[in-house]
Batch of 2 targets.
Target 1
Amino acid sequence: MSINEHDIREVELKAEAIRETIIEMLVAAGSGHTAGPLGMADIFAAFYFRILRHDPKHPEWEERDRLILSNGHIVPVRYAAMAHAGYFPVEECLTLRKFGSRLQGHPEREKLPGVETTSGPLGSGLGQAAGIAYGARMDGKKFQTYCLMSDGEQDTGNIWESVMFAGANKLSNLTGVIDRNNIQINGMTEDVMPLEGLRAKYEAFNWHVIEIDGHNIREIVDAVEQAKAIHEKPTLILAHTIPGKGIKDIEFDYTWHGKPPKKEEAEKFLAELRTLKGKIMGEHQ
Amino acid sequence: MMQPDAKLAENIFQKPESAATRDGFGTALLELGESNEKVVVLCADLAESTRVLAFKEKYPKRYIELGVAEQNLATVASGLANYGKIPFITSYAAFSPGRNNEQIRTTISLNNVPVKIGGMHAGISVGPDGATHQALEDLALMRVQPNMTVLSPCDSVEAHKATLAAAAHNGPVYLRFGREKTPVITTADTSFEIGKAQTMWESDHPADVTVIATGPLVYQALLAAKELEHAIPVTVINMHTIKPLDREAIVAAAKATGAIVTVEEHQVAGGLGSAVAEVLAQEFPVPQEFVGVKDKFGQSGEMKELLPHYGLDAAAVVAAIKKVVARKTI
């Protein structure tokens, strides 16, 4: 089922609200990652406000789709999306990384219902997602399992063990999404440890691969619909994204991987995001 | 004398039965296959030697092959447990938890999901394979992880019970098993409770020393106690649970005998001896001697050659007993 223009606009507005919350929470936290969360805001908005079968008031609902975040360091975008979706009050986002908060610097399953898994150390999300998908298939469960990954963590051996396992077992109820933003901590991915041709690598491991613009809501939603229709193998959505998307000073700049904006910068960035929101509304009205 | 309440096997000093602890794991898995539908078994290309082949043949849909991929072994099991299964993962202890320690830490212990980790061929007794395959640090790796329960059964019968107990325990568990056949000390009637130490040998006179042993070396501790029967009164405790440790039993032993010897097929750093010393230092300090591997890697050889070479046999326990008794100030 494709998505109409009205619904696209709704999701885009959610994405911008998520971006604003990300900036606010990072400033309040005084540490954390900026580029990754901003770059994934559209994908998280599409999942939480369009794709997932979930119930924010009952995060442990057995039939829910599972959204596994493998690269735990971009969790501010997940917290922001969950808060806007109604899992917890948006104000709680400002407790990110603070003592006693449920919003740990990297997500913890036992701290906050709905985050599904503890993650941070890279490379271990896809195996967990494959385990959930395998168990669900054993029991004839209908829910989907999604695993969001970074491109940098494709460096890890564990990821490729999981890619091989999911391909061999034809886990068609599993969909991976790679945030292909081309940056990692030490620089551009192709300089640090070249990943290309990433598409051909996944295809060689018996995965169906769809490449999309990770900021185009229609392409995100359509890709997931296509993935659900493929019953022979798992699907990888290779989502090309712009790190720091929405804020010109941050976009494409790998030095923003692991630092938060300063207070003065944040005011400027928030103004820019609010202008962008006006632009989205203008374009669609 | 053998502690009658422990209901141990008769004639263990004459002609004991022998079986590998990994065999007890295998038979327990078959029983669990029948009794608990949630139990699934994951293996990293070592089905026969980790004793899960029979489960694979009887319950093929609940057996999951990972190939030589120990990191994925841990993470896939974490996902299965997160979903609602009770996964047992098996490989050699040198690789799991040796190679996949971080995945166990983050995705099993911190996630707090009920994955059961079977570490096979642990200790130096695996023999001819040499140092690469002789896991001597697995107890240390596992006992420092919050949420993790650590079991180290002394024989195949206890290994069977420990495996059943692990399945019933709602949390992560590490189970340590050996490759070689070793004497069967316990019987079906011997009790087994996670976290509850077991006295196996008591002397007629008040004991001068308590030997706290774990794994198949419990037998060497019993041999030592028997040898010293008419010279030094000894108590022998089987500490099958390394974590949660039975602090009460350790403190009671320290108070009653004033000296402790720990015995394990593991580095003395970080294992049972260290765990016991942590309790004694806090609660009731008494002299302690450590029988274990002293900061060395192993090497190829037969178990009967390696145990004496590394000071892990009954003679080494006897020497440690004499030494600790001489150190007693009371």
Note: Chain A touches chain B at residues 108-110, 116-121, 123-136, 138, 157-158, 161-162, 164-165 (CB under 8 Å).
Target 2
Amino acid sequence: MTLNTRARLLACAASALVATGATAETITIATVNNGDMIRMQGLTDDFTAQHPDIDIEWVTLEENVLRQRVTQDIATNGGQFDVMTIGTYEVPIWAGQDWLVPLTDMPEGYDADDILPAIAGGLTTDGTLYAAPFYGESSMVMYRKDLMEAAGMEMPEAPTWDEIRAAAEAMTDEEAGIYGICLRGKAGWGENMAFLTAMSNSYGARWFDMDWNPQFDSAEWKATLTDYLDLMNNYGPPGASSNGFNENLALFQQGKCGMWIDATVAASFVTNADESTVADQVGFALAPDKGLGKRGNWLWAWNLAIPAGTEKVDAAKAFVAWATSKDYTALVAENEGWANVPPGTRTSLYENQEYLDAAPFAQMTLESIQAADPQNPTVDEVPYVGVQFVAIPEFQGIGTAVGQQFSAALAGQIDVDQALDNAQKLTEREMKRSGYIK
Amino acid sequence: MSRAVTPQRKAFNTALAWLIGLLIFFPILWTVLTSFKTEAQAIADPPIWFNFNWTLENYFTVQERSNYFRHFWNSVVISVGSTVIGVAIAVPAAWAMAFVPGKQTKNLLMWMLSTKMLPPVGVLVPIYLIFRSVGLLDTKLGLVIVLTLINLPIIVWMLYTYFREIPVDILEAARMDGASLRNEVIYVLLPMAVPGIASTLLLNIILAWNEAFWTLNLTAAKAAPLTAFIASYSSPEGLFYAKLSAASTMAIAPILIMGWFSQKQLVRGLTFGAVK
């Protein structure tokens, strides 16, 4: 090979490299490890076929690791991610800090008005959408139809807490290893406090009054915690103070729970005959109420957002539009069946008869989502947004610390009054330190 | 005077050693067993030990979903790179401390060790900002630098301890014979300290391989090692224990195999100088 030929080959290779580098743009997407997100990763060929000039790199992390990782990156303008999967809790806080790109000019046909109002409300700040919902969820009662029938009872479509207690009592058979009710007990703002905050809303309790004074010394919180402990101590599984979503899911799937009040997304797991021993015996009902006009259900969505620090806004926006569009829903249905499309984000999905036929829990999910109001989560007025959380940056720390007190009460280490007193004091201290109250 | 060991005592000691060994090994064994189960079998109560339909499905799923070899290669580069650079820096440092100690040597050693007492999260934000500024985020080089610095105190301490066991007279004899400092270290000191250096290398490769705080916080897609690979299979909403176990088994297998084959060196090095 002559020197001239080598030089030509090198020049060709170099120009090919330059050309590739100039046209292909790679976006990095941070996401959580759950079924819907993994499915999305498997379908990205459809996106890259539509956008051959965009490559995708996935970073999949456990929820808590992801939250810490993306918060650190966005707060320091690290620029590691071009699209982030974030929850309903982060969106209003980050939008308020100007950390997110507003999703004002989505492509034609995106139909933002089709997003369920309850979900869109949590993602909108000053009338602007800052994140696109990928899937949404609320919470509801999942119960064993066979055990209810054996007990001679019928679960109302919209039960009260008293009816839940009666059903738990009737279904409990400790000798057979069946516990009337399974609820979250593991400490954490997204664990037991998600459930207890939602439950407290139905009791008329609230985290703060309009002047940001903590309200754990109220009668409503005492009633909430007393009833929760009563249910769990009498009809719950042993060691419940360390049970979160997965532990309760495992118990329910093995037929050890009469009822389980948790995320609507669990419906697809407990009705899956490959994993659940009680798949054909599961019924659904709305989260319970106390007759005060609010139900004990929460509202959550995993959303795709674009950090303000990214230099690839157009490519990121194209991806967000693709993944949260009606076309994506149709793509999942075509490849994986209607039962596997991401639920809880678009009105049109709940008007689709094929979906309603394939997902027996669809209507209950929709009603649960619609029953939650992040702007007015409880009976009295509150200064914050959020149903099972308070959308302020300090809440993660406070919520987990309060959750530890309530988990200790469930473990029998302290009583109701001590737990509430400790919660009140620590919340007051943190709110003073953060300047909300003097 | 030596004490006679009765056969009963020997049998008891052997049984106790096996019991402790099995207890320590049990979590790994359970992880490996779970990786061959279905998700439903993985959460069965009572637990299923061996009587299940063994399946490789989880391994196929993990391999299909993630680029295992990229994570593996990143782990190799990061752990071997940081260890080799760390030892290269630590050998002269430990030599100086062991054979020509100054008044402050002990304080210096304690100070080096004290840096290990600081919780890593305390310096996360400054290091993240520095890495962002110099473009080291999500690079293997960045992680090699961080892990070298993190493990350096341990490497220096280990080598210092080994070097102290080597009689200084031998080094002096080499000097008398006209050996330069370089030759003294390379041809006299290092051959005698091989077991110690080997165990230091092995232990630090294991530490770097398993390091999860910095490797998760400073990487995204390109430099993520096997710790990030495992983290991607953990989920608080969904029972993916069998897949998580398959990912964990794939992540620990290389280091486990390496430890298995090099256990002789590891034990010899760790007990070096313990019995005179």
Note: Chain B has a mean pLDDT of 90.
